[in-house]
């Protein structure tokens, strides 16, 4: 029989939770005050699991968790909370909690987690989470409390105390650098430097110098010795953004630094030891890049010790009102404005729009609206996105022109201003990929996932179709 200590000042809830479990498998003990837990764990070595509420009299659940881990580090602890808090989720997982769950519980999830923690099921952390409650939370500058954001917070807490490399996937504008900064702030390196390099913004020779530094006279224009970002970030963290755009030569040199923890400046012969935690990010499919031969397989697995996927804003719409409120307050404060409000129609526009530029595009729209609006109540017309952008495009399929130009123009025109603002220099590539993914997804859906019929209808080979399904992660 497994013995569980349930610590919560709500007696009725505690008893209700205990009643969910088979009394032949589980025995429950109950405490209401965090101050009592330490002595109980010391005196009862047979305890198999502690379920611990965050808000307790006298001592918080997170402080009790730290006590338990000092007394018996291998004792699994499930943290339970009455509200979603990304900060608490990070802290709980960082301090070694087995899981972080929120009330009201998803009962199947709760029972499964307890069974796993007690050894009745194979051990693995579930990816599910209970429904979020109204309100907002921030992981540093990351704002939201959707299930996706809380899962990211838990991952940040789990990886914070290690030096494992982290690879962040996500579209442009989803906040990949903010996640990287949150990992650094939660780590033991937080008092040292956090530096970032955009690998797509510099040509190969300059990127190499930016990362590894150069000696005076190493190349034309190298009038002074330069200390690279690796040396500057020694004992800290280095964020490599758009890693998929790094040249193969620079990838080789980066791999050596990661393996050997040493480098030589460009044009130099001195070996310099470095201790840097790497967090990399990309909006590309590195799997496809490896297939194309533009990204090293060995570097991919060196960077992808832990991976985090940041979903696009359109897939976590519940965070949009929270983000709107955050950016409204942020820019009102910067501009010394009195607080403005959104009309219902404006909020409806913002929540229905697909946000191809993600959080960055939303922030730019809020900023523009606050600057341009002459009223304290923001209306749809105050935002750069066209008020029709969030609505389905009305297309006359019977009279459609053979080349489809007018049809696609109706779709693209409303979003082009934001593409110009958020994706300069990448619009063609972005739209080409988006169209290809959309037409393949639509055709697959039409044929209920039948790849043979889809390939025949599109006029492409099965191998090409399978390649695109993998590249664009179409399910």
Task: Give an overview of the whole structure.
This protein has 4 domains: 2-157, Response regulator (Rossmann fold), CATH 3.40.50; 162-309, P-loop containing nucleotide triphosphate hydrolases (Rossmann fold); 313-394, Helicase, Ruva Protein, domain 3, CATH 1.10.8; 425-471, Orthogonal Bundle (Arc Repressor Mutant, subunit A). It is built from 20 helices and 16 strands. It has helices at residues 11-19, 37-43, 61-71, 86-94, 107-117, 147-160, 176-185, 204-212, 229-232, 248-260, 286-292, 297-303, 320-334, 344-352, 358-372, 405-412, 416-422, 427-446, 451-458, 462-471, and strands spanning 2-7, 26-31, 49-53, 77-81, 99-102, 138-139, 142-143, 166-169, 194-198, 237-241, 262-263, 272-273, 277-282, 306-309, 341-342, 377-378. A 5-stranded parallel beta sheet has the order 2-1-3-4-5, sandwiched between helices. A 5-stranded parallel beta sheet has the order 9-10-13-8-14.
């Amino acid at each position: 029989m497994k013995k569980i200590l349930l610590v919560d000042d709500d007696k009725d809830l505690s008893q209700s939770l205990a009643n969910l479990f088979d009394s032949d498998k589980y025995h429950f003990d109950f405490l209401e005050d965090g101050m009592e837990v330490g002595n109980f764990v010391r005196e009862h070595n047979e305890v198999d699991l502690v379920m611990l509420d965050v808000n307790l009299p006298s001592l918080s659940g997170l402080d009790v968790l730290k006590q338990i881990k000092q007394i018996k580090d291998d004792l699994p602890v499930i943290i339970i909370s009455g509200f979603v808090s990304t900060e608490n989720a990070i802290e709980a997982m960082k301090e070694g909690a087995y899981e972080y769950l929120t009330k009201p519980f998803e009962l199947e999830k709760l029972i499964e987690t307890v069974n796993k923690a007690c050894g009745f099921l194979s051990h693995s952390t579930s990816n599910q989470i209970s429904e979020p409650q109204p309100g907002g939370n921030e992981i540093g500058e990351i704002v939201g409390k959707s299930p996706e954001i809380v899962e990211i917070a838990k991952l940040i807490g789990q990886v914070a105390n290690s030096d494992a490399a982290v690879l962040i996937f996500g579209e442009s504008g989803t906040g990949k650098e903010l996640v990287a900064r949150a990992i650094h702030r939660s780590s033991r390196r937080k008092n040292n430097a956090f530096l970032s390099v955009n690998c797509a913004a510099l040509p190969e020779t300059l990127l190499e110098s930016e990362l590894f530094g150069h000696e005076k006279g190493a190349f034309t224009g190298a009038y002074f010795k330069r200390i690279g970002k690796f040396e500057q970030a020694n004992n800290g963290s280095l964020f490599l953004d758009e890693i998929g755009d790094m040249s193969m030569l620079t990838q080789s040199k980066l791999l050596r630094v990661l393996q050997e923890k040493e480098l030589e400046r460009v044009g130099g012969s001195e070996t310099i030891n470095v201790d840097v935690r790497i967090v990399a990010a990309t909006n590309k499919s590195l799997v496809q890049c490896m297939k194309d031969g533009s990204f090293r397989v060995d570097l991919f697995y060196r960077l992808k010790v832990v991976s985090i996927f940041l979903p696009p804003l359109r897939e976590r719409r519940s965070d949009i009102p929270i983000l709107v409120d955050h950016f409204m307050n942020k820019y009102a404060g910067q501009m010394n404005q009195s607080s403005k409000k959104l009309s219902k129609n404006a909020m409806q526009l913002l929540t229905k729009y697909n946000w191809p530029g993600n959080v960055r595009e939303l922030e730019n729209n809020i900023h523009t609206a606050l600057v341009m609006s002459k009223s304290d109540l923001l209306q749809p017309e105050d935002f750069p996105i066209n008020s029709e952008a969030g609505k389905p495009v009305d297309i006359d399929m019977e009279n459609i022109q053979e080349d489809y130009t007018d049809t696609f123009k109706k779709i693209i025109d409303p979003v082009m201003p934001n593409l110009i603002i958020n994706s300069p220099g990448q619009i063609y590539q972005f739209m080409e990929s988006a169209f290809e993914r959309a037409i393949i997804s639509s055709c697959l859906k039409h044929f209920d996932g039948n790849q043979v019929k889809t390939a025949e209808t599109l006029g492409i080979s099965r191998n090409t179709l399978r390649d695109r399904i993998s590249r664009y992660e179409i399910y």
